[in-house]
Amino acid sequence: MPPLPPKLQDLPPKWARFCLGIGSFAAGELGQPFTGRSCVVACSGGADSTALLLIAALLCRKDGGTVTAAHLDHGLRTESGADAAFVRGLCENWNIPLAEERADVAGLARAGGTGLEEAGRAARYAFFERVRQSAGAELLLLGHQLNDLAEDQLMRLMRGAGWPALGGMAGWDPHRRVLRPLLLTPRANLEEFLKISGTPWRVDLSNFEDTFTRNRVRKDLLPVMQRENPAYLDAAARLWRQGRTDETHWEAEAARALAQVPAAASPHRAVLLPQDVLQTAPAPLRLRLYKAMLERLGPGQPLADGIFRLDALWREGAPGKRLRFPGDKEARVTKAGLTFRVIDRKKECG
Questions:
Q1: Does any domain span residue 251?
Q2: Do you find a cis peptide bond into 164, omega within 30 degrees of 0?
């Protein structure tokens, strides 16, 4: 494996600008510069995460930051040990600290009664967070790129997601400190960058199997969309930007409206969303307020059909009408507005 180029100047100018552009996207559009900061980079050994590790090392080291790599072996494939050895050798040659671990994802799936994808995702994020805290790092960098984003948008559409969630995964998740600086970079560009820099990568053959929905979207559905519209990835990037702009706007509007609503003293205590707030809120804002009020009450995802039905009941002006939501949550129409609470099943059953 090649040693890490000590400076961006060692790269051809086009590819030095490519790396700097990824840093600018993170700092500008995502609002989270990672150059000069302490970062953990999740690295599977595939093209995306290998390119991210190289770019992060170039940019972070340039400005005095630090990079730690994290690799989780899921124990699902016979070649997973070779993937771990590849990442280990990469980090040794590039002088990057590596935290690695092996997880029995199949066992975790059986124990939790979940699918392999869900169990693997939970194991990865738990491991990455442990590494981030142990390293004292500010950010966790993930290698999701534009093709992944386009696949995510299609999967959300199939699941019936609403707007602006259809825009796709977040580029910055402040709760988990997750940053995706490659999100608007096509996979082909990353592979070309690795070839130019003389950097190999591993190929996960399970990505070509039809077992998982994402693989079928990647193999079958996305290529159809690209044949119909050769600029489909550009359209996916625009959709993401539009969704992010709308989400930022409506989140700010909802926060202003919710500032007028006190938090519940206890989940079983009804909280009022006042009539004057509802009457001055346009429909897109009202729907977000209902969702936020229900989420304040704890676990249980409010589904879109219920949210729309609640708005219809409020517009009908039907005091006393109630609607149940997942998590034993209840919304009730009153003359003063809408009240939200968690049902106390012990009292309800007498």
A1: no
A2: yes
Would you say residue 159 has pLDDT above 90? no
**Phi, psi angle pair for 334, to nearest 5°:** -130, 170
Residue 92, exposed/middle/buried by CB under 10 A (0-12, 13-18, 19+)?
A: exposed
Q: How many CA atoms lie within 13 A of 184 on its CB side?
A: 23
Can you name the residues that pair with 339 across neighbouring β-strands?
A: 272, 332
Instruction: Give the number of residues written for the chain.
Output: 350
Segment 191-228, tens digit of pLDDT: 999 999 999 999 877 777 777 788 999 999 999 999 99
Closest CA to 322 of 303, 305, 347, 339: 339
Would you say residue 28 lies in a domain? Answer: yes
Q: From its phi and psi, is residue 50 left (phi > 0), alpha (psi between -120 and 50) or beta?
A: alpha
Average pLDDT over residues 156-165: 88
Instruction: Indicate whether 212 and 283 sit together in one domain.
Output: no
Residue type, 189: N
* Range 29-57 average pLDDT: 95
For the chain, the average pLDDT equals 90
Q: What pLDDT was estimated at residue 6?
A: 59
**pLDDT, tens digit (0-9, with 9 covering 90-100), for 237-256:** 999 999 999 999 999 999 99
Residues 118 and 70 reside in one and the same domain:
yes
Same domain? 293 vs 340: yes
Q: Calculate ∠ Cα 319-323-325, nearest 5°.
A: 150
124-128 mean pLDDT: 93
Structure tokens at 265: 């003293």
CA 56 to CA 331: how far, in whole Å? 47
Query: Which of 150, 141, 345, 312 shows the shortest CA–CA distance to 235?
Result: 150
